[in-house]
Amino acid sequence: MKTALLTRRGLIATTATSALAGVASPATARTKGGNLETEAVWLDGAPPLRHEGVTWGVPWPQGQHPSRQSFTAVGPDGGPVPLQSWPLAFWPDGSLKWTGHALAASTTPAAELGIVPGRPQDPSDAIRVGTLATGFQIDVGPLSWIVPTSGPALIASATRDGRKVLGPVRLVCLTQDQADLSDDMPLRQARYESDVTGAVLEQSGPVRAVVRIEGVHRLGDRAWLPFTVRLYFHAAGEAVRIVHSFIFDGDENRDFIRGIGVQASVPMRDPLHERHVRFGGEAGGLWAESVRPLTGLRRDPGEAYRDAQIAGEAIPPLEQMDPRVRDRLELIPAWTDFTLSQTNSDGFGIRKRTGDGHGWIDAAGGRKAPGLAYVGGVSGGAAVGLTNFWKAGPTRLDVRGAAGEEASLTAWLWSPDAPAMDLRFYHDGLGMTTHAQENEGLEITYEDYEAGWGTPYGVARTSELTLWALGATPGRETLVAMAAGVETPPRVVCTPARLRTVEVFGDWSLPDRSTLLRARIEDRLDGLLDLYRDQIVQRRWYGFWNHGDVMHSYDADRHEWKYDIGGFAWANSELSPDLWLWYSFLRTGRADVFRMAEAMTRHSSEVDCYHIGPRRGFGTRHGVQHWGDSSKQPRVSNAAFRRIYYYLTADERVGDLMRALVGSDETLTRVQIRRKRPAPDDPPPGGPIVDAGFGTDWSSFLAAWMTEWERTGDRRWRDRITAGMTSLAALPHRWFHGGGHYDVRTGRFVGAGQAIGISHLNAVFGAVETHSELLRLVDVPAYRAAWIEYCKWYNAPAAELEAYLGVRVGNRGLPQAHSRLTAYSASQLDDQTLAQRAAHEFLDEAHFEDFGLVSRLRPIAGSAVLNPVEEDPGMSTNGVSQWGLAAIQNLTLVPAALDAVGIEVPTANRRSERP
Q1: Dihedrals phi, psi of 189, to nearest 5 degrees
Q2: By residue range, what is the domain housing residue 112?
């Protein structure tokens, strides 16, 4: 079998290609003689300066490797590279479909790597995991980490060569019972700390060990804010990666979070002048000072002393110091507390003080801090990094007690400097108390309001941190490299060509500019990605609860997205922007697109969904607040939006979230999606028979069941899929019913059903992508025919569809988006007439001005706006997402038919890459 190599020459070729194309950094594979030459690449186009271990996923063709196949990695010289591998998914025949792989930490990452079958090479300093009476001991080279299974600490300690360099690591949450200070009521504050209720060892090395910790935040008898924390240890690493998730289960009218963070204790043994604090700055900058400075004094201790302290190294012997300084060291103020506060995405400040009861001194500031802090001395210390520090604020990094025997190092995910977190609904109901009144409100603001339904109870949030246990203060360049790895975590990914060859994730193809029309479509696809990347920056779509999402609709009069207009505000996955971004990444390998898609996946799978409570497993429709709209549906929590990220990265948290969805159809017994406008024959609430849409509901469940089946091989999920398929195909009008009565006990649709119910939403929430994958795995001929029938006839001329169904059909929306259904049926039936119809549907000139090949992008500045921005008056995330997905699938399924349309192609507005 040919070894798959990532070569330096390939990286250079890839980078050059991306520069010519105006793309950030595509991981584009080269081929030689028809065989893939590359397996995977560094996402950003070149190896990082250092990393603390990386993990990624690799797909394999069906039947190529048995389920227990082992793998090894080889370097450029053909020598083995330590690798840990595990299965992520299986084909129906039991062979490997996806595998996860982990590399050890490295300060000199290789630019060449291949993954081949074989016995893996263990690292020379392999991770060793021991089970203790009270937890786990994880040894990584000279480091020994103790992880308890109960108590207040996530990590009890870290020792280095037997010397303790890190004390307890715990979670902390500060709360207050009012949003703001009141004139007549005292404000009560409280401090909660982590209470670990259990810990499980998920992987034990030799390259990577993973511990999953569950717990709550506790103060006295009250326990709330349940959390899941995973700790990742890599061979040769000095750090633990922390993935921190919590669920809000409080009362938003009483529980206002003032601060939530991760806090570590750091022993301080060195003289005050050999203790140091560091904060990462912008563009490779570093703020570096000592607890007791030896520079800038009236008397000079000597160049050797000053240079050593600036470098963070041990100073020469004190007896050699100028006595005018040595004898007055105690008169130099010792700074014990330090803070870097990033209050918003545009600015941070650094302050310090000599202790409690004394004033803070402003030290420095900047715009966007990478999120790294260090405290320690020549005998050891600790650093912490918070990814997305300036994007997901308000955030803060604290060092406290650096002049004492033990310092604390805290990464605040929500900064205590900011106003308390206020999750209350944003208006008082406006007098709407009946469904009729609420539907009237929907008509004007597009917001589906209902009292009590806009609750944050059950939403979640995930953050990623890195915590180092260090033997000494790192050098400045090392700290800068550490900060860079926090701000832009190194990633290994498979190349687009490698992914395409295995044919995972359905119908997509590599970019093709071989004809004028295809080039115009490709340019427009790239231009729309550029547009949204830049809108995120220009519109400041950042923040603790917002980072990762984009807005739904645009208000050209205000030159502003409709952030405050009901259902037009945050997109919340409406019409699948998640899939548009992920399929765009699959095709191009662009690093900027990956990170947009990653942020959206993290956000939408956590914040937009309910993880506990009566609405568990459902998400919230688009709105001013991510949880504010009263429409709760599985189309938002859809596993189809998460699975690509999971398989590309082997991310356990997203794996947990998808697994939690396999029983979410039961939530339909508590949440009736059509409760405000029920149909006459809707089943009574609370029973096992419910109303379910084929696309927005059942297809969302399909994605979760399909993923769980391929991850585990458990046939009950396949059986549940086929039960639904068989029963749906037996209905008189199959998919043209739009939905039906569904039995949550069996997964079957029940009842004959006669009504035609075509919905423009049924196929635009991942149903197309899910079916494209699923029908390659499951053979139910009657259902396959039913799906192809729907794809063929949805966009058919009205008279033809009426003749086919025997009834008059009303307006069918989103015809351009549904051109991909026509293209799918054309491909499956090998029907050139259908292919030509799909091409005309997609290239309908009426749509060029709306999400099509013409851009009206223009700059807006001066008094018309707060800050200079760019706008296209027709910007719509619905339209862009569906146009992008339709373009990708038409280019894949009917490219020749597109070329044959023969229209005059407008000039696309292709935007160049910006730093």
Answers
A1: -115, 155
A2: 8-117
